[in-house]
Amino acid sequence: MYTTSETLFEKARQVIPGGVNSPVRAFKGVGGTPVFMKNAKGAYMNDADGNRYIDYINSWGPMILGHAYDPVVKAIQEYATYSTSFGAPTEMETKVAELIVSMVPNIDMVRMVNSGTEACMSALRLARGYTGRNKFIKFEGNYHGHADAFLVNAGSGVATLDIQAVPGVTKSVAEDTLSVPYNNLPAVEQLVAEQGRDIAAIIVEPVAGNMGCILPQPGFLEGLRSICDANGILLIFDEVMTGFRLARGGAQELLGIKADLVTFGKIIGGGMPVGAFAGRKELMEHIAPVGKVYQAGTLSGNPIAMIAGYTLLHTLNENPVIYQQLDEKANYLVNGLREALGAAGVVHQINHLGSMMSVHFAEYPIVDFSAASGANNELFRRFFHGMLERGVYLPPSAFESWFLSNALTTEDLDFTINAAKATMQAIK
Ligand code: PMP
Fold first, then answer.
1. Predicted confidence (pLDDT) at residue 382 exceeds the cutoff of 90
2. Which of 151, 177, 255, 347 places its Cα 20 to 30 Å from the Cα of 121?
């Protein structure tokens, strides 16, 4: 059934470390051979062996309207004929920036980069350059890309592979990264009381998606905001996952909390490699060439990436009903899965907000990284493979969020719920 994938994986491993260009794809958390994809349309992906899957990863977020969304594909085709890169400014960059500024609360300016990693790395540099301070606070199990400073107690693949300390990240860099448990305001207060004058920023996933999906507890983000205000610290919302997904204006809009700097990725590029960071003019004008905080990119603002992102964002902006539909679909799925798992007598927790969700097999609420780590990973592994065999493609790690697309139909959701029932039956 997976023979072509197996052959392709074997070949890939000869020339690509681990056979993949990003670790989580290797199925290390769940075992088995990663499935090599061939094409996808709407809610479905087809692998190299011709198996079809309902997709709950959606390229880890960008495909919010499903794969190969026609308007995005057409726009890319047209723009590709103009040239795939100029290395000079184009009008579309301004149009995208204007659109983003109009959608996201509390920002005046945007700088485009090529990935979420670059976005977070650059936002942190800006915060350090602006405040003249070196340290920053991050949360255990949050992931802000693979820049050195963020690889301390990180989520996502770092957590899946159980890498406690990343070789290559120097001690001196790691010393400036202060890390505390998610949702633990007293721990932040204590750190700030001790070292506040050296702390440039607090960076947080306003809804965490890199240790499964974990919601901020009431008062957590509000508390971070007031700690930052009282201590001259900048609050960075990493909205690489949540941006344009939880609402048009992301978590800032949905949860009603203002950040000083915001980072984006995924949806902002419509599936092309794009990231961005944004903030108030007064802050953003510390970036070169206006200010001295240097940041640059040969392919930044790439015309194909810009038109793909613009087309997708424009659709989301014009059709707010999409968010309502996504919420309805997520609720339907969550309720169906709760019922299916409950009926099978499986202890579980499903966290979700909007179209982000995850399933942990545990009897206690999953509120931080240590709770997520304590869940039954063996059962998750069997659940994942049971679903895969039945044509449902879930994230291959419990330390990842599921992302729904609006291409999903009620039939797809029912199919998924039935697959969960059948999987649990088979596991029994
Ligand atoms: N921040 C968050 C919240 C993310 O989820 C990710 C990637 N999953 C990143 C940053 C890094 O983005 P990229 O993989 O595009 O570098």
1. yes
2. 255
Per-residue pLDDT reduced to its tens digit, 124-150: 999 999 999 999 999 999 999 999 999
- In ligand 1, the atom with minimum distance to the C-alpha of 115 is 15
- Architecture of the domain delimited by 3-68+320-427: Alpha-Beta Complex (3.90)
- Pocket flag, ligand 1, residue 220 (CB < 6 Å): no
Confirm or reject CATH 3.40.640.10 for domain 71-318, answering yes or no: yes
- Pairwise CA distance, residues 70 & 66, whole Å: 10
ipTM of model over 0.95: yes
Cβ of 117 below 6 Å from ligand 1: yes
Peptide bond into 17 cis (omega under 30): no
Ligand 1 pocket check for 143: Cβ under 6 Å: yes
Q: Probe ligand 1: pick from 59, 138, 158, 210, max atoms within 8 Å of CB?
A: 210
- Ligand 1 centroid from CA 389, angstroms: 28
Active site residues: 143, 238, 266
Whether 114 is in the pocket of ligand 1, judged by its Cβ within 6 Å, is no
Report yes or no: 313 and 102 within 8 Å, Cβ to Cβ: no
CA distance 250 to 206: 9
Residue ranges, comma separated, of all CATH 3.90.1150.10 domains in the chain are: 3-68+320-427
Q: Ligand 1 centroid vs 369 CA: distance in angstroms?
A: 17
Query: Is ligand 1 within 6 A of the CB of residue 144?
Result: yes
**pLDDT in the model for residue 163:** 87
First to last CA, the chain: 23
Q: In whole angstroms, what separates CA 100 from the centre of its chain?
A: 18
